[in-house]
Design brief:
By secondary structure, this protein is α/β, with parallel strands linked by helices. The chain has 15 helices and 16 strands. A hairpin with a 6-residue loop joins β3 and β4. α3 packs antiparallel against α5, α3 packs across α7 and α4 packs antiparallel against α7.
Length: 469
């Protein structure tokens, strides 16, 4: 493995670049002070070819809880994106030729460093994403587990021997890396969505260019620092952060560059369609996890208390900002009223809105004001069509990005909240009569990802097991 240990590039930057570093943290004006982040892992530059690089401009990373600036990060453009692709392409032959055992050992070292720095990584997630620290700590463990898993799987990339159809022939299947992979990740799991994709790619012998969400680039850059410390060769793992303004051009460059062989994206369906269009020109391989609209079905035969506990967990994790969060609650008419009453009490009793760093917080802020506006729009539309607010329903006094956990009843299928993914702390409850009706409502969406039910026997009886459960 010694041949893979490249000289470290010292982080000696000119004074102008040093001012871009988010640690030590700076406070602007008289606004709230941002949380203090671990300077050992916070980086401001892109990571290209094993080096930290600055761009012509920088963009701010904000604490969604207070609105305070955490720091400024290099606003990479098309030139930096193409340089990262070139670096990954040049590193490809050496990385793919490395014995599987060596790739496995380096991934394992990266995993170990994540575990050694798990508390600092969690603080970075809470600072830039807003989720409660306990949830962030859970994400770090989840994130690290992908590197651990693929470190082991790197040793098990087996081929196959296929019986031939004619004499004097031998058919062999050899699995080989496809090449450079573009990795575009969302803000709601800024660490786990990277390692889940990158761990598999590196284990297979591919190299990657990561474009993290503009709201949460610090986690991706912290992972780059640890990858560098682990000895991952220069060019194998690259990170190109950029602002929302630069994102369309950078995304197009990363998806159309002829040196890129694979695209992996997690995010909205609308963005996924754009990236598919870009990929079509060079017929690239794509893997996409797009929007969700999960139904949660509660039948009359369900244990209401268990159903409420499951509903609470499936809806309000990360303040409802996960792709598999329940977006529609379908409750059979006989237990509908009891479910709504107990669900409302559980929300008021068990959920606490606050800063993610505060002890006892279960609901942090939404990622930005645009996200809050969407929740408000869905509630306003539902109420205008006859829905009732059982609890919550408005912004929380804690700050502009905080919203009260909300429960709606008297919801119908023509309301926006049952047609679009809310991605916020809003639980609309639809009353249904027959099991077949519930399955039909659940299947009426053109997106999927998840569909929980606390009563699987009734789900199977209704024919839903094969359809969506």
């Amino acid at each position: 493995m010694a041949r893979w240990r490249l000289p470290r590039t010292p982080l000696l930057l000119p004074r102008a670049a040093q001012r871009l570093l988010p640690a030590p943290l700076r406070r602007s004006g008289s606004g709230p002070a941002p949380p203090r982040l671990p300077g050992s892992l916070v980086r401001s530059g892109g990571f290209v070819g094993g080096r930290w690089v600055q761009a012509a401009a920088a963009f701010p990373v904000l604490d969604p809880a207070s609105g305070a600036e955490l720091g400024r990060v290099a606003d990479c453009g098309v030139a930096e994106a193409r340089a990262a692709v070139r670096a990954a392409w040049e590193a490809g032959p050496g990385w793919s030729a490395a014995p599987a055992k060596e790739r496995s050992a380096l991934l394992r070292k990266w995993y170990s460093l994540m575990m050694e720095n798990k508390d600092d990584l969690a603080k970075i997630i809470t600072a830039e994403n807003g989720k409660p620290l306990k949830e962030a700590q859970g994400e770090v463990l989840y994130s690290a587990s992908f590197l651990e898993w693929f470190a082991e799987e790197a040793r098990r990339i087996y081929g196959d021997i296929i019986p031939p159809s004619v004499k004097d022939r031998r058919l062999l299947v050899l699995k080989q890396p496809v090449g450079v992979a573009t990795i575009i990740t969302p803000w709601n799991f800024p660490s786990a969505m990277i390692t889940r994709k990158v761990g598999a790619a590196l284990a297979a012998g591919c190299t990657v260019v990561v474009k993290p969400a503009e709201d949460t680039p610090l986690s991706a850059l912290a992972l780059a620092e640890l990858a560098n410390q682990a000895g991952i060769p220069a060019g194998v793992y690259n990170v190109v952060p950029c602002s929302q303004k630069q994102t369309p051009a950078v995304g197009e460059a990363l998806c159309t560059d002829p040196l890129v062989a694979k695209i992996s994206f997690t995010g909205s369906t609308a963005t996924g369609k754009v990236l598919l269009h870009h990929a079509a020109g060079t017929v690239k391989r794509v893997s996409m996890e797009l929007g969700g609209h999960a139904p949660f079905i509660v039948f009359d035969s369900a244990d209401v208390d268990r159903a409420v506990a499951g509903a609470l967990a499936s809806k309000y994790r990360n303040s409802g900002q996960t792709c598999i969060c329940t977006n529609r609650f379908l409750v059979q008419k006989e237990i509908h009223d009891a479910f709504v009453e107990k669900f409302a009490k559980a929300i008021e009793r068990e959920l606490r809105v606050g800063n993610g760093f505060d002890e006892g917080t279960t609901q942090g802020p939404l990622i930005n004001e645009k996200a809050v506006g969407k929740v408000e729009r869905h509630i306003s539309d539902a109420v205008s069509q006859g829905a009732s607010i059982v609890t919550g329903g408005k912004r929380h006094s804690f700050g502009k990005n905080f919203f009260e956990p909300t429960l709606l009843s008297n919801v119908t299928t023509n309301m926006l909240c049952t047609q679009e993914e809310t991605f916020g702390p809003l639980a609309p409850v639809i009353k249904f009569d027959t099991e077949a009706e519930a399955v039909a409502i659940a299947n009426s969406a053109n997106v999927g990802l998840a569909g929980p039910s606390p009563d699987l026997e009734s789900c199977r009886a209704a024919g839903g097991w094969n359809s969506w459960c």
